[in-house]
Amino acid sequence: MYAVITVTYALSVPVGTSADELAHLNYARLISDHAALPGPTVTERQQPPLYYLLSAGLLRLGAAPVALRFLSIVLGVIAIACVGLTVHHLAPRKPWLAVGTAAAMALLPGLQFVSASITDDSLAAAVGALLLLVTTHVAMAPRPSRRLL
């Protein structure tokens, strides 16, 4: 359901309709066109550049702006998967709980909206979920090991 909703939104709503979407797109275009980070007059310049570097790479390869929405959708999938894996790690004998948690997260309208828009918030969600997964693995480890590191 997540894929249907986010892909439908990404393909049917004109780019620039979502909040700050044009500012995020312009940040990525600036990097793509000039190989430089934004100066003090660029909106969203305070944001960490990783999402914009990834987006600029897509634009540099000739991708249409809507492709940046698909980058956000993939990052949303990563966030959902990391949350599901975290729950699976916490309750390995209850696989339905991990699946249910991932499904509930996938059905959150806010996540769907962010994941179908050009925004660095999708990367923030994916990195936050990955951090939660890694932290859970470290906290539940019986003892530190090289494998864990």
Task: Give a structural overview.
By secondary structure, the chain is an all-alpha fold. 67% of the residues lie in helices and 0% in strands. The N and C termini lie far apart (36 Å). The mean pLDDT is 93.
SSE order, one letter for each helix or strand:
HHHHHHH
Structural class assignment: mainly alpha
Q: Distance between termini?
A: 36 Å
Profile the largest sheet: none
Q: Overall pLDDT, averaged? A: 93
In DSSP terms (H or I, runs of 4 or more residues), the helix count works out at 7
What's the count of strands? Answer: 0
Overall 3D geometry?
globular
Our estimate of the beta-strand percent is under 5%
Task: Give the fraction of residues assigned to helices.
Answer: 55-70%
**Low-confidence spans: pLDDT under 50, at least 5 residues?**
none
Return Rg in Å.
Answer: 17 Å
Question: Could you name the key traits of this structure?
Answer:
single chain, 149 residues, mainly alpha, 7 helices, globular
